[in-house]
Amino acid sequence: MTAASPLLDAAPGHRLPVVADPDRAAIARERILERLGEAQGDAADDLAAFRAFLEDPTGRRLIDGMACGSAYLTQLAVIEAPVLARTVRLGPVAAFDEIRAGFEALKRQGGTEAQVMAELRRLKRRAALVIGLADLAGIWSLAEVTGAVSDTAEAALQAAFAHLLRDAARRGEIRLDTPEDPGPTSGLFALGM
């Protein structure tokens, strides 16, 4: 592993995206760094790793190629710049594991409808960024990418169902055998295609 990022060790340089518009890429880098601002603690380590990543030609090409080829991922990278920097420092597997843990915590802790909805959106956005970056870098196979997308969908549904079941129990409409994790014993299921 290099000092800068596990992504540099894993990303095959020949598969990285083309940088079609260097000016657009520079603007995206600037916006991401601006969003990271003055980080402290673990975030400072993430920021340092991200800066080192941008100094490496492969790292810069990955971020610049993302900026030129995917407006959606670029928007996510700006909004979730700390997650981008953390993914650069830890690698996509560890970053995705943190996001999964966030879904699990949401499922177990819940909150108001507005809180659950906002947290679901945030976690799905973060998952999309990590999955997209791993895919764009060519370090996850198609099976790993689609598996992560499926895992994200399942985790989001489980958290939403847990909230709905707890809400129905609070209103006296149902009784929960396991309020801390109501889904598995509820009989509620969803079919998706």
Automatic annotation (TrEMBL):
<dbReference type="GO" id="GO:0008882">
    <property type="term" value="F:[glutamate-ammonia-ligase] adenylyltransferase activity"/>
</dbReference>
<dbReference type="Pfam" id="PF03710">
    <property type="entry name" value="GlnE"/>
</dbReference>
<feature type="domain" description="Glutamate-ammonia ligase adenylyltransferase repeated">
    <location>
        <begin position="104"/>
        <end position="193"/>
    </location>
</feature>
<dbReference type="InterPro" id="IPR043519">
    <property type="entry name" value="NT_sf"/>
</dbReference>
<keyword id="KW-0548">Nucleotidyltransferase</keyword>
<keyword id="KW-0808">Transferase</keyword>
<dbReference type="InterPro" id="IPR005190">
    <property type="entry name" value="GlnE_rpt_dom"/>
</dbReference>
<protein>
    <submittedName>
        <fullName>Glutamine-synthetase adenylyltransferase</fullName>
    </submittedName>
</protein>
